[in-house]
Each structure stands twice: as C-alpha cells, then as structure tokens.
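Bumping my old thread because nobody answered last time. Still need a sequence for this structure:
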C-alpha cells in the first residue's frame, strides 16, 4: 500500500473526503492535503483534516515549486480544479486554464520525478455540449428521458459511455480537463507514468459547499434548510432536466479498489457516476428536499436556456463497474438526509457560506 499520499485540492469537497477516508483506512500512511484555499468554505475542512491526522500544506498546483517542496510520494490523487463549468466565461480565463491544465502538467512532472501512481479526477464535462443537447429526449412525469429505443455511438438507455464522440465545444472547464486527459495518456506512453483517469459526473454529500454552477444537490438542500429561493433555469423552466449523481463515499469505495489493484486499472479512462438508478430531475429533487427537510421555498421559473447547460445526462459506468466489481450504494433520499443532518449539526459555521 502507498505510504506517502498527496491529495491536491485536498481541502476541497472531494479532496478532503478522500484524504479523511484514506487516513482512516491506512493510519500508518502519511496523507497530505495540498490546497490554495481559494474556494469559500474549504477553510472549514482544515480542522477536520488536522484532527484526523492528515497533514495540510498550503500551496498551488500552478506553482511547480510548491509541489517539489513536498518531496517523494507514492500516490498522487489529482483533485485540484476550478470546478465550475462557467469558469472563465465572464472574465479572465487564465485561472481555469492555469489551474486545470498547467496545474496538471506540474502534477505529472512531479509524479514522474518520484515514480508515483497518479489518479486523475476528470469530469463528464469533457463530452461536447452540442452533441448532448441534440439527443432526442421526451417528458415523462417530472423528468426528461432519452427517447425509448434510441441508440447511437456511446449512447444507450444506460447513459453516456466512454465511446461518446468527443468532437465539439464543451466549455473551458471541460476543454482543460480533456486536454489533461490527452497529456496523461502521452505521459503514460512516453515515460511509463502509471495513471488512472476517473471521469466523474455530479458528486455530492456532506461538506460540499454547493453553488448554482457546481454542487447542485448540496445547494438545493441548503436553500430548503435556510429558506432561500431557488430557480428552475432553462428547458421550459419546469425543472425537468436530469442528471445522475454519486455520493462521495461511493466514490471513495471505488478509489480504494483501484488503488489496491492498480495494475489492473493503470492506463484506463473510466466514466464514474451514479447511473440511471441514481438520477433525478430538479423537480424530483425539490420533492425529496421538501419531504426530508420539511420546508418549502419559493422556486422561480426561467424559461430561457442558460449557456453551457444540458437537458439530460446519465453516466454509463458499466466499464468501471465490471473492471472494479463496484457499484453505487447510496441513493437520493439517504444523500439528502445526510446533507440535511450535516447542515443542522454545523448550522452556525455553514450559514455564512450558504446565506
């Protein structure tokens, strides 16, 4: 097992969650959470990390020297990112490019120096928006669904697979992640760097500081809890757009398997998500929040579509499920209850983040 583990983006939602789980399961390992603390709320994870025995290092993947100062490692979990699909849209694009692409190069060079295994957390946003919005969908109840019987390259009733065509625009966020994937493949071939790529869909769970453009489940629960209004944006303004989700604890179970049997997964790119069983529309999520949180909030309707949004996306994770013997276990009601309990237990420190 790896004895020295570096988690970039280690004070963020995913990075902190993985750091804490790994230190719990491998207490003799040195686990280092590396983060620039740019995202609001990430500072709240520092005490959790400290109490668990995870070492925190303040640094930035954009600066190679910050990584080099850590010294040799066995395993690098590359969770750092500007995670918003709207990143760079309304201003300077350099931060999202420098963090998500140049940061990846710095991480790859650092890992190559020390012969470390690299697990890179990519995104379902690598798939082009135009192709996704052209898929034939129909309304059934409170959700949109793929037209029954429709099949195309990388598309089936199970969702979007790794074979979905990649030609087309996908946002700066998605483009930087896809470019990173291509570089990772080259580092594997040219330098023998051992890499595993997980293209994650919508991730959620307690300690996610959700925003409109990233972390929608946690945001939806928090707005119900604190009584803040919400909006159904685009696709008729009815909240019928659909995504699947994956609880971060289910993600960790997969990561653990991949680390323990890394030789089987090195060189592979996997779609990782909750699939059709763990999918929801915003309208359905509202119903669950009302039931679990016990509150109703005002929800406005914006008919016009928002740039970069998609009406339907379900992750086809059958490749990684077969390879790892893994499948998601935590459903929507349990997830919403867990987030609600977390907010209730930490209301005083979380209210400034969500209000």
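Sorry it took so long. Here it is:
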């Amino acid at each position: 097992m790896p004895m020295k583990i570096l988690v970039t983006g280690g004070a963020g939602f995913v990075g902190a969650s993985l750091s804490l789980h790994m230190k719990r399961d491998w207490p003799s390992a040195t686990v280092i959470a590396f983060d620039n603390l740019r995202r609001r709320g990430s500072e709240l994870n520092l005490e959790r990390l400290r109490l668990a025995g995870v070492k925190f290092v303040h640094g930035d993947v954009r600066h190679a020297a910050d990584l080099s100062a850590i010294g040799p490692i066995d395993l690098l979990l590359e969770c750092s990112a500007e995670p918003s699909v709207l990143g760079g849209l309304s201003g300077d694009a350099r931060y999202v490019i420098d963090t998500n692409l140049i940061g990846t190069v710095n991480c790859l060079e650092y890992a190559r120096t020390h012969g470390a295994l690299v697990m890179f957390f990519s995104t379902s946003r690598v798939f082009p928006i135009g192709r996704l919005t052209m898929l034939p969908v129909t309304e059934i109840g409170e959700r949109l669904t793929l037209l029954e019987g429709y099949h195309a390259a990388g598309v089936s009733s199970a969702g979007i697979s790794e074979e979905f065509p990649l030609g087309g625009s996908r946002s700066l966020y998605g483009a930087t992640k896809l470019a990173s994937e291509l570089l990772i493949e080259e580092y594997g071939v040219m330098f023998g760097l051992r890499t595993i790529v997980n293209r994650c869909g919508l991730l959620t769970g307690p300690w996610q500081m959700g925003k409109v453009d990233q972390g929608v489940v946690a945001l939806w629960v928090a707005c119900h809890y604190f009584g803040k209004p919400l909006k159904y944006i685009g696709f008729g303004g009815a909240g019928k757009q659909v995504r699947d989700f994956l609880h971060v604890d289910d993600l960790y179970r997969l990561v653990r398997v991949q680390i323990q049997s890394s030789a089987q997964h090195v060189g592979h790119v996997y779609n990782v998500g909750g699939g059709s069983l763990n999918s929801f529309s915003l309208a359905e999520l509202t119903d669950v929040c009302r039931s679990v949180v016990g509150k109703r909030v005002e929800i406005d309707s914006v008919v016009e579509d928002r740039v970069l949004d998609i009406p339907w996306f379900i992750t086809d994770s059958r490749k990684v499920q077969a390879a790892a013997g893994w499948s998601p276990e935590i459903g929507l009601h349990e997830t919403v209850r867990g987030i609600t309990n977390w907010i209730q237990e930490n209301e005083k420190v979380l209210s400034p983040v969500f209000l």
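The longest strand covers residues 117-123. Let me know if any region looks off to you.
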